[in-house]
UniProtKB/TrEMBL annotation:
Entry keyword set: Phosphoprotein
The protein's name: Response regulator transcription factor
GO molecular function terms listed in the Swiss-Prot or TrEMBL record: DNA binding; phosphorelay response regulator activity
Highest taxon above the source species: Bacteria
Length: 238
């Protein structure tokens, strides 16, 4: 896997490069001080992953994210927590706050590596569903995926990743379509990129849901419906 670093602060670029050397053997193809220079580079070069600052002159990271190739993944790196929910509109792999913690960086890089591998595999298809399970076709076989085993479903580019207790399956389908196939009693959409199984929520704040080791953003648009359903209206977190 290769990457580029885009940040207008020279020290931030050097610190991130040093941290990446500690957690992975990822190839850093280039570092850029502006999004405009990075945009020129990715037009001529294949880039798997971009570590992207947000507050930058000329073109900010969110504007740049709208122009990157569909296959390129993003990890935002910023000192500003208020952009976190907005970042998931760009199918960001992760959102790291400065100063970047090396353990969080390691987790983000491993997640990006997994997703790049999934995207490179032969894509699965959902063939049919019943009231209790889905049939997913992969490698010329049909696999039965019980709804009760699904932790959550994540939208990524033009695909969804079904996270179960035992595996992750990528499927060519948008999040809205697969949500319509899931039982409303215990599945709920909580952001632009996630549908979750309410039974697997370990804990939550007013912005984040935690399922196993996953941190799932709770979008403002979906927040009221989530708390109304999950707590029968007994919680009202602002």
């Amino acid at each position: 896997m290769n990457c580029i670093i885009v940040d207008d602060e020279p020290l931030a670029r050097e610190e991130l490069q040093a941290l990446l050397g500690e957690v992975s053997n990822i190839e850093i193809k280039a570092k850029f001080s502006t999004a405009l220079k990075a945009l020129d580079f990715i037009k001529e070069n294949n880039v798997d992953l971009i570590f992207l600052d947000i507050e930058m002159p000329l073109m900010n990271g969110l504007e740049f994210a709208m122009q990157i190739p569909e296959k390129t993944l993003i990890i935002f790196t910023t000192a500003y927590p208020q952009y976190a929910l907005k970042s998931y509109e760009f199918d960001a792999i992760d959102y790291l706050l400065k100063p970047i913690d090396v353990n969080r960086l390691d987790k983000a890089v491993k997640k990006a590596t997994l997703y790049i591998d999934l995207l490179a595999e032969q894509k699965n298809t959902i063939e049919s569903n019943t009231t209790d399970f889905l049939f997913i076709k992969a490698d010329r076989r049909y696999h039965k995926i019980y709804f009760k085993d699904i932790w959550f479903v994540e939208g990524l580019k033009d695909y969804v990743i079904i996270h179960t207790q035992n595996q992750k399956l990528i499927t060519a389908m948008n999040l809205k379509s697969i949500h319509q196939k899931l039982p409303e009693t215990y599945f709920q959409r909580v952001s632009k990129s996630y549908v979750i199984n309410l039974d697997y929520i370990d804990s939550f704040t007013n912005h984040t849901l935690y399922i196993n080791d996953a941190e799932i953003p709770l979008g403002d648009v979906y927040k009221k419906d989530f708390f109304d359903k999950y707590s029968n209206g007994s919680l009202n977190i602002d």
